[in-house]
Design a protein that fits this description.
Radius of gyration: 15 Å
Helix content: 10-25%
Number of helices: 7
Largest sheet: 3 strands, mixed
Shape: globular
Number of strands: 5
Strand order of the largest sheet: 1-2-5
Low-confidence stretches: none
Structural class: alpha+beta
Order of helices and strands: HHEEEEHHHHHE
Strand content: 5-15%
Mean pLDDT: 93
Distance between the termini: 33 Å
């Protein structure tokens, strides 16, 4: 089934069907990064450590249907959760639509290509390491500042 042209401008997140919801994902994989939160300030810090299930070239989960079972901390995003999560990247299509903002030129629904998110440097491609290569006890050593 083909997606309706610019459906994200016509529907709220809550109104989207599964295909529309999944189509809205820009494929940046920033949501799959490990994050740290400062206990005093609540500030969020992103690391370059990524979930072990992420295909770091495609920026897609290698076992999407089973991700929640395999990685219990994996969140299944929904419209309510998107509005609550302060750590969602400012470039995230779910966040942008929830805030009534336009999608960027590099978003696949706008550009017509899944590669523009990588070409624009928005995705985590070539910037991250899988969790099994990181010292997970010292995640603060992996904090990055190349987001947003």
């Amino acid at each position: 089934m083909a997606l309706e042209h610019e459906y994200w401008k016509k529907k709220k997140l809550e109104e989207m069907d599964t295909e529309e919801w999944e189509g809205l994902c820009d494929g940046c994989a920033r949501c799959c990064q490990y994050k740290l939160q400062d206990e005093d300030t609540n500030e969020i810090y992103y690391t370059n450590v990524i979930c072990r299930l992420l295909d770091t070239y495609r920026c897609r989960c290698s076992d999407y249907p089973n991700r929640a079972r395999l990685v219990p901390t994996c969140l299944g995003l929904n419209a309510d959760l998107v509005k609550q999560l302060s750590w969602m990247p400012k470039t995230c299509a779910y966040r942008l639509v929830a805030e009534g903002k336009e999608l960027a030129w590099w978003h696949p629904l706008v550009s017509g290509s899944r590669e523009t998110v990588h070409q624009a440097g928005i995705s985590v491609r070539n910037k991250v390491i899988p969790e099994y290569e990181a010292d997970m006890e010292n995640l603060e050593d992996y904090v990055v500042d190349w987001l947003d």
